[in-house]
Write a structure and sequence with these properties.
Elements: E1 2-7, E2 12-17, H1 20-52, H2 55-107, H3 112-115, H4 133-169, E3 187-190, E4 197-200, E5 203-206, E6 212-214, E7 219-227, E8 231-237, E9 242-252, E10 259-260, E11 265-269, E12 279-286, E13 289-291, H5 293-299, H6 305-319
Antiparallel strand pairs: 1-2, 3-4, 5-12, 6-11, 7-8, 7-10, 8-9, 9-11, 9-12, 12-13
Helix pairs in contact: 1-2, 2-4
Amino acid sequence: MQIIITDAWLARSQAIHLSGAKMLLAVLGMAVCLMLVSIGLYHWVFLKGAREGWPVVGALVKLVTKDEFAQRDRYLRENIEVMAKKLGEMQAKMMQIESLGERVSGLAGINPEEIKIKPGMGGALISGRDLSMNELQAALEALDRDTAHSTDIMTVIESRLFEQKIKQMMVPTQEPVAGANLGSGFGWRIDPITGGSALHAGLDFPAHPGTAIHAAAGGVVVAQEFDPRYGNLIEVDHGNELITRYAHASRVLVKKGDLVKRGKKIAEVGNTGRSTGPHLHFEVLVRGVPQDPQKFLNAGRNLPVEKVARVDSRRSMAQR
């Protein structure tokens, strides 16, 4: 193909020879340029008309975006509905937790008015409109506040229960000599040495020499000495002016100031001091006044040594 270009001012002509390949490339180049110009004009006119609200362009925008908005709206509605169902399930579980907290609070000795349990709600289900995003957000914020409130309640209950557990562990309800038969009880008796009437201020547990003596409750060793009446003596303070006394030991395994746990081996049975044979003399004193230890031990019959040992072991492992 040959193209002749004539210049009227210079009165001359110029011939351009195009082969088939060059002609094809030229057509493609022109098509690409025309396409780019068309796209640029379309976007400029379309966007300008959409921003300024041209009637025809506005109608086209609505037509093009109508289906897209409908799909987006449907997607949002479906997701809000799913989230609302999940929110309802979470609210139901939260009410169950609050109800459980109310029941457990009684075991912890807490007045329900102190923790302000949320009142119960209910009624027949009458379906209504779907929640809006703002309503859903408000419900989530309310649930978050309820969760924080329930956490505070459970923390208080845990603290009270732990306090009660500590108090129980500080009361001498565990037998100091496991499996030993009771010898002489608390009260007036014939003294085995003088033969006269005398007050026996504790319990005697006959056992073989070397038998383990366990702390009847947790506390602090406040005395570890030799007394002519009691022989090798240990006294453990459990707080609240309550003290336990362990006498006639052959071997002492703790010293004054030691902190002992419930069930800990603190000594071994012996025959020291004013004694006619190997046994443990066990006393409980409240404000310095001897009490019948049998009353305390009877209260701890449902708390065997093995169970206490497992509890203490798990607590020690948790602290590590």
